[in-house]
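in:
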């Protein structure tokens, strides 16, 4: 059986490209309701998306200077100062002077800040466990084989983040991908 893909070409659903397209559709499916629910979970407890971004930077890069954080977030030093101050008030980060140069102020995650992603991951794992509990042992085995093959293939493909230019280029790229 064949079907038309978004660019109008016809692919055989049983062919490798057709199967890859179906898998991508299943993996990428995220309804607005699901996305909204996840954002509510992430934002519970007065965490904004910018706070999550700061915590992600600190988790991946370790303590960073205020100026490096401002550059990473693409905001002014004054704006990052306000962001970090609010995060300090919520006990998510703390500022410390550098040991080599006391003029440099480094932002460090607190234990509470570092724990945010553990909580999110625990929630995600609990939800996925409920989903996986709906599968039979044979389905789980097949899924495990597929996931392991996917991880091995992913390791062979270098990561390149999308360009999210504020000039609308990212919208054009998203439109092209959807077509």
């Amino acid at each position: 059986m064949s079907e038309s893909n978004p660019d109008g070409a016809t692919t055989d659903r049983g062919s490798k490209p057709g199967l890859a397209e179906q898998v991508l559709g299943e993996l990428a499916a995220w309804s607005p309701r699901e996305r909204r629910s996840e954002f509510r979970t992430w934002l519970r407890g007065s965490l904004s998306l910018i706070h999550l971004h700061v915590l992600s930077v600190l988790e991946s890069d370790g303590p960073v200077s205020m100026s490096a954080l401002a550059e990473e977030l693409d905001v002014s030093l004054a704006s990052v100062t306000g962001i970090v101050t609010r995060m300090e008030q919520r006990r998510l980060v703390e500022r410390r002077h550098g040991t080599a140069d006391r003029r440099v102020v480094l932002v460090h995650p607190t234990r509470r800040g570092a724990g945010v992603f553990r909580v999110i991951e625990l929630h995600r794992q609990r939800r996925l466990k409920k989903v996986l509990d709906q599968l039979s042992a044979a389905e789980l085995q097949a899924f495990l084989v597929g996931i392991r093959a996917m991880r091995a293939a992913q390791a062979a493909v270098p990561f390149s983040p999308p360009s999210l230019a504020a000039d609308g280029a990212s919208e054009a790229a998203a439109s092209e991908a959807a077509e």
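note: Residues 32-153 form a domain with the Arc Repressor Mutant, subunit A fold (CATH 1.10.10.10).
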